[in-house]
Amino acid sequence: MTKIFARLMKDESGATAIEYGLIAALISVALVAGATSLGTSISSTFTNLTTQMNKGVTKSQ
Fold first, then answer.
1. Phi, psi of 52 (to 5 degrees)
2. Cα–Cα distance, 1 to 29 (Å, whole number)
3. What sign does the dihedral 24-26-29-30 (CA atoms) show?
4. Which residues cross the membrane (predicted)?
5. Radius of gyration of the chain (CA)
6. In the chain, what are the domain boundaries?
7. Which long-range contacts does 49-56 make (Cβ < 8 Å, 24+ apart)?
8. pLDDT, tens digit, for every residue of 39-58?
9. One-character DSSP codes across 20-52
């Protein structure tokens, strides 16, 4: 039983998989945050554009 436990303590393949999983999760969080920020910025730009276009239509009528 102690040999099995000692072998499990030396096995690092699970630790490597966990590290890759954590890196992938961190990258995913960064991508979601960046996409959210970009989406907010684009939404604001289109809102401003719509406002300006509506002002132009109102003046020409």
1. -65, -40
2. 41
3. negative
4. 20-42
5. 27
6. 1-59
7. none
8. 999 999 999 999 999 998 87
9. HHHHHHHHHHHHHHHHHHHHHHHHHHHHHHHHH
